[in-house]
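Hey, I'm writing a tutorial for new members on how sequence and structure tokens pair up, and I'd like a real worked example in the thread rather than a made-up one. If someone can provide the structure for the chain below, I'll link this post from the tutorial.
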Amino acid sequence: MTHAAAAQSPQVNTPERIRVLIEREIEQGRLLPGSPLDEKALARSYGVSRTPVREALLMLAAQKLVKIVPRSGTYVHRPAADELIALLECLGEMEGLAARLAASRMASDQRDQLRALHAQCAELARRGDRGSYETANLQLHAAIHHGGGNAVILEQITNARRRLAAFRRNVFDRPGRLQTSHAEHDLVVQAICDGDAPTAGDAMRDHIIGKGKAYADLVLASR
């Protein structure tokens, strides 16, 4: 679906549709941190007036995905290194809690699915297939989140991951990161399948927070 067609969909109001479309552009790396967002150009692209675009940008600013600078313009939010690390710390705790709950609550078929996803990640890491590994990695984490069965935690994880999306993608470009990521997953998956909630939580938290320096380095390098 084109931007204009999506913006004309009757299912949700226009500002919300545009918010979702811009959010998707940010998450998928087509709008990079620091990129200017011109209301007039966006209105043309989505086939709408500037008013719903302005409302969509205000909603995105509330999500901290864009930054509105008076007398300057609107930009895709570029977090400072300390903000990035704070987000990783928060995400690490939430992901760790989800893993602990998954170790206690996952049904046997969910554990089988988790093992299958982990095996798929192993093969992709061995081949160095970054794009496919990234997709499988998200599926593995999603399986753990849903296995934990807590919608509030899932919402918090989703929000934090959305704010980190532009940097999360680039981390896998680093040499050896796919193999390191898979090795860290191994500890998490084994603990969940063994029903060892404390170990699962600690391993997942360390896996997420351990990325903090790499994320911060990416921010500093982009300045």
